[in-house]
Amino acid sequence: MTGAGAAPVYAAAVCAGAAAWLLAGRDADLRRARLLLAGGVVDPGGPEALWERVAAAVRGRLGREWLCAPVAVLLAVLGESVLPLAAGAVAVPLVRRRLRAGERRRERDRRTDAVVALCGAVAGELRAGRQPGQALFAAAGTGGLGGAEAEVMAAARFGGDVPEALRRAAREPGADGLAGVAACWRVAVDGGAGLAAGLDRLEGALRAERDQRENLRAQLAGAWATVALLALLPVAGLLIGSALGAGPLRVLLHTPAGLGCLLVGGLLEGAGLLWARRIVRRGEGS
């Protein structure tokens, strides 16, 4: 295989190598952990360590969204057009935004779980005979206070306004339950009510809300799978056309009718994804 016929194969190999390079860190870390747990020794100066350092440096600068670049290069080579490169350049920031939104959602869920754990830990310490401030200090390791931990701890240690500090901490994403902790704390201090009982009820309410949200996400997983399947149908059509020798990329990228179909199809695809996402998001919000 020589000349133009070998170009797609070489491009595919380069793109696959780039993708493997960006994703190599997880396997390298797992391999290193296995060696250490098995009593092995990792040579810090060997070629494997050098490869890991280079891969880590690249991943530190290039996120997963840059995997769109090798795919765009491969399509540009196979279709002999610069349009896939332009599409890849547009896709990178969109994918980055999507990935960051997912990271923020996971961080919010972790913070919510930490607040639930904080309520349970403080209630347990209070039942063990500790004072509220001491119980809060003992339960600080749950991470429920997040970045406001120093402020809340200072208020608890030096006689400050702990409920107000907790309300300010509740403004962070996923920390809404701290507003309930602040209310329980205020009632316990001003009215003499039992703080442990209030925190127990608050923990139960937060846990029930979290379980309801997870149950709803599990029910919507099928809808998300349907959306993903519908989004991949055009890709499957291109693969089938290529397997049959129809040359769909050449038709789409080098003929007026193909460019028109590509534009209309891309708009319909994007509109369909946005519509399906809106429907699912509305279901999550309800």
UniProtKB/TrEMBL annotation:
Pfam family, one: T2SSF
Spans through the membrane: 71-95, 220-245, 257-276
Subcellular location as annotated: Cell membrane
Record-linked InterPro entries: T2SS_GspF_dom
Main location: membrane
Residue span, Type II secretion system protein GspF domain: 121-240
Domain of life from the UniProt record: Bacteria
Topology of the protein relative to the lipid bilayer: Multi-pass membrane protein
Keywords in alphabetical order: Cell membrane, Membrane, Transmembrane, Transmembrane helix
Protein's recorded name: Membrane protein
Organism listed in the record: Streptomyces chryseus
